[in-house]
Amino acid sequence: MRKNVLAILVSLALLAPLARGQGLESSPLRQDQFTLSQALGSLSHGFAFNQPAQTEKGLRHLHDLSIRYASLSEYLPNLTPRSLPAHAGGVDELAITPGGTRLVSKGRDNNIKVWDLATGSLLKTIPAPPVYCGLSPDGERYVTEHQSRTSPRIRIWNVLSGQMEQTLEPGFRENLDHPRTVFSRDGRTMMILGLSNIDWIYLACIWNLESEQNVNIFATGRPVYTAAQFSPDGSAVAIGNTDGNICVRTLPTGHYRHNFLDGKMEISALAFLPDSSHLVSGSDTGAIKLWNLASGRLDRSLEGHQGRVTALQPFSDSARFLSGGADGLMVIWDLASSSKFILGKHHDAVTSITLASDNRTMASGGAEGSIKIWQLPVMGKNTITRAGFESAVPDFLAALSARNLDEFKRAFIKGHNLLQRKE
Predict the structure, then answer these.
(1) Is-cis flag, bond preceding 223, omega within 30?
(2) By C-alpha distance, which of 199, 245, 232 is closest to 314?
(3) What are 210's strand-pairing partners?
(4) What is the pTM of this model?
(5) For 110-141, what is each residue's pLDDT tens digit?
(6) Which pick of 184, 235, 249, 270 has the fewest CB atoms within 10 Å?
(7) How far apart are CA 185 and CA 111, in angstroms?
């Protein structure tokens, strides 16, 4: 096996001048042939000498070419998502239940639907109450506001049984317009964001669901609260607004822990990494930023979307996260390298992302009303096997000697499909 890989290295060395276009006018074909030669060289070294970093480097080059030359369904069949026509008017929220067996969705058609995640079959449809607030992240509960002129109430319902589980005193006298719910990771703390229809101020109201006590209320006139997220241990909450400001407050006191400023860009999405090292923010310009929670400083900025970032979802290893945007793109980000891998695209804006506990099954919702269920790749060395790599090399070498872009594309796609071959 090692001799075979070393033979590939010799072949690449001979073909490298062609791939670089030495003595020839630079062209898109030559540039892509050079990128492919870099990918194959890195993969060859990675497999021959057991160097995962080289293997990952090669995979990133292949991902870049794959996105350029084919749709996902053409070159990577196992990443073609199952698409469900779910909700007329768009999908608002998604949640995968513990154990990864069911998917719960809420749509703009005011229906809550329960799906079998493995088969995509619809199990149950529940008409949403008039003042619906949101789903819990485990998909087992939903929240409504019972509006009243004198004493509004917050009610929590069981999705499957349809029974009301809790009634909460809101801690305010007014009803809320366009309320939205955010839960802590452990489901013990809940926040509702909404606009008061009496004072016309924006409220963020937090409850301890075990004691059923309202523990804090934050209020603002301008700027408006646009995104919120609890820290992994529930000890803090981050709230972003229309002026690009992100306040991280300690709970239950509400004392400021950090105050991040993202220029004048509206904060459209927030997510804490599970290891509590960073807060990830998305803005209405498409920028994604990582804020260091130890230093209180901006670590880096990432560019991956044209227009508003609509959803963020970290993986449990804190090494990667998913983003969705108004451009319809679904992107996986690798934090070690700051590289991105584009999974695919909705026909309209991505509205929600949820990830199963196995970090492999993901569902995304779109403004066009569809749900896509994805089986995500294992990022890194295990994405391809040695057998798959060796079987693909002849076609990749043919792509390196292609005389035009059509020849390159045909050979490249054929080789890329063979990468999925098992040992």
Answers:
(1) yes
(2) 232
(3) none
(4) 0.72
(5) 999 999 999 999 999 999 887 888 899 999 99
(6) 235
(7) 25
